[in-house]
Write a structure and sequence with these properties.
Helix content: 25-40%
Number of strands: 5
Number of helices: 1
Low-confidence stretches: none
Strand order of the largest sheet: 4-3-5
Distance between the termini: 6 Å
Mean pLDDT: 95
Largest sheet: 3 strands, mixed
Structural class: alpha+beta
Length: about 80
């Protein structure tokens, strides 16, 4: 569950969609600009943690070989602890 200090935060659909768009934009940008390793930018996950911390968004990217099992979309937004 996302948090702000000790309070649970309910993520809005608009916020979740914005994170999907951010991930998609980063994948596209890196595929275009990192030609030698464009295949390393196949999927992205954002894990959302505590909004009171400066690093509350944790982004992970990878290639098809390292795609998490069951991940059907190229982007995923999930809530961390």
């Amino acid at each position: 569950m996302a948090r702000y200090h000790n309070h649970q935060i309910k993520l809005t659909p608009k916020y979740i969609e914005a994170i999907h768009e951010l991930l998609e934009a980063e994948l596209e940008m890196m595929q275009e600009q990192d030609k030698d390793y464009s295949d390393c930018w196949s999927w992205g996950i954002c894990t959302i943690g505590n909004f009171s911390k400066p690093n509350h968004l944790y982004l992970t990217f990878g290639d098809e070989e390292s795609r998490p099992k069951g991940m059907s979309r190229n982007t995923c937004v999930r809530e961390g602890g």
